[in-house]
Amino acid sequence: MRLIDADELMNFCNNLRDKTIDANDIARFPTVDAVPVRHGRWVKGELAPDSWQFCSICRFPKAVRRAQWYYCPSCGAKMDEGEEDA
Fold first, then answer.
1. Apex CA 19: angle with CA 16 and CA 21, to 5°?
2. What ranges in 5-66 are assigned the alpha helix state H?
3. How many domains, the chain?
Protein backbone atom coordinates (compact mmCIF):
# COMPACT_ATOMS: atom_id res chain seq x y z
CA MET A 1 0.00 0.00 0.00
CA ARG A 2 1.23 3.48 -0.87
CA LEU A 3 0.01 6.57 0.97
CA ILE A 4 -0.04 9.63 -1.28
CA ASP A 5 0.05 13.29 -0.35
CA ALA A 6 -3.63 14.31 -0.58
CA ASP A 7 -2.74 18.03 -0.50
CA GLU A 8 -0.63 17.63 -3.64
CA LEU A 9 -3.46 15.73 -5.33
CA MET A 10 -5.96 18.46 -4.44
CA ASN A 11 -3.65 21.16 -5.83
CA PHE A 12 -3.28 19.18 -9.03
CA CYS A 13 -7.06 18.73 -9.38
CA ASN A 14 -7.73 22.41 -8.68
CA ASN A 15 -5.35 23.43 -11.47
CA LEU A 16 -6.88 21.18 -14.15
CA ARG A 17 -8.32 22.91 -17.16
CA ASP A 18 -10.45 20.78 -19.49
CA LYS A 19 -8.61 17.60 -18.48
CA THR A 20 -9.58 14.62 -16.43
CA ILE A 21 -7.41 12.82 -13.93
CA ASP A 22 -6.72 9.09 -14.30
CA ALA A 23 -4.91 6.34 -12.40
CA ASN A 24 -1.60 7.12 -14.13
CA ASP A 25 -1.75 10.69 -12.82
CA ILE A 26 -2.42 9.49 -9.28
CA ALA A 27 0.39 6.91 -9.48
CA ARG A 28 2.92 9.71 -10.04
CA PHE A 29 2.07 11.57 -6.83
CA PRO A 30 4.60 11.70 -4.01
CA THR A 31 4.16 9.39 -1.06
CA VAL A 32 4.18 10.32 2.61
CA ASP A 33 5.96 8.58 5.46
CA ALA A 34 3.39 7.26 7.91
CA VAL A 35 3.92 5.47 11.18
CA PRO A 36 1.36 3.00 12.54
CA VAL A 37 -0.46 4.34 15.58
CA ARG A 38 0.18 2.49 18.83
CA HIS A 39 -2.65 2.44 21.36
CA GLY A 40 -2.05 2.36 25.08
CA ARG A 41 -3.49 3.42 28.40
CA TRP A 42 -2.31 4.87 31.67
CA VAL A 43 -2.00 2.10 34.28
CA LYS A 44 -1.63 2.56 38.02
CA GLY A 45 1.76 2.13 39.63
CA GLU A 46 2.29 -0.85 41.88
CA LEU A 47 4.26 0.90 44.65
CA ALA A 48 2.34 4.17 44.74
CA PRO A 49 -0.98 3.61 42.91
CA ASP A 50 -2.44 6.92 44.12
CA SER A 51 0.51 9.01 42.91
CA TRP A 52 1.77 7.65 39.59
CA GLN A 53 0.50 6.15 36.38
CA PHE A 54 2.60 4.53 33.68
CA CYS A 55 2.28 4.13 29.91
CA SER A 56 1.21 0.55 29.13
CA ILE A 57 3.59 0.53 26.14
CA CYS A 58 6.87 2.02 27.42
CA ARG A 59 6.25 2.43 31.17
CA PHE A 60 6.81 6.23 31.04
CA PRO A 61 5.71 7.70 34.41
CA LYS A 62 3.06 10.39 34.79
CA ALA A 63 1.90 12.01 38.01
CA VAL A 64 -1.79 11.28 38.63
CA ARG A 65 -2.53 14.92 39.47
CA ARG A 66 -1.33 16.14 36.07
CA ALA A 67 -3.83 16.99 33.35
CA GLN A 68 -4.94 14.13 31.13
CA TRP A 69 -2.36 13.32 28.43
CA TYR A 70 -3.88 11.95 25.26
CA TYR A 71 -0.48 10.79 23.91
CA CYS A 72 2.53 9.41 25.74
CA PRO A 73 5.34 11.99 25.48
CA SER A 74 7.94 9.21 25.43
CA CYS A 75 6.74 6.68 22.83
CA GLY A 76 3.88 8.59 21.17
CA ALA A 77 1.22 5.97 21.92
CA LYS A 78 -2.34 7.25 21.69
CA MET A 79 -3.93 6.84 25.11
CA ASP A 80 -7.40 5.74 24.04
CA GLU A 81 -7.75 2.29 25.62
CA GLY A 82 -9.27 3.78 28.78
CA GLU A 83 -8.03 4.20 32.31
CA GLU A 84 -7.48 1.20 34.52
CA ASP A 85 -10.40 0.61 36.89
CA ALA A 86 -9.94 1.83 40.45
1. 85
2. 6-14, 23-27
3. 2
| Nearest alpha-carbon partner for 46 in 74, 78, 84 | 84
Same domain for 61 and 46: yes
Nearest of 33, 26, 34 to residue 10 by alpha carbon: 26
Q: Are residues 43 and 25 in the same domain?
A: no
Residues 60 and 70 grouped into a single domain? yes
- Give the full edge-to-edge strand order of the sheet including 42-44: 42-44, 52-55, 61-63
Task: Name which residue leads in pLDDT, 30 or 79.
Answer: 79
Q: Are residues 1 and 29 in the same domain?
A: yes
- Give the whole-number percent of the chain exceeding pLDDT 90: 30
Look up the pTM and report it. Answer: 0.55
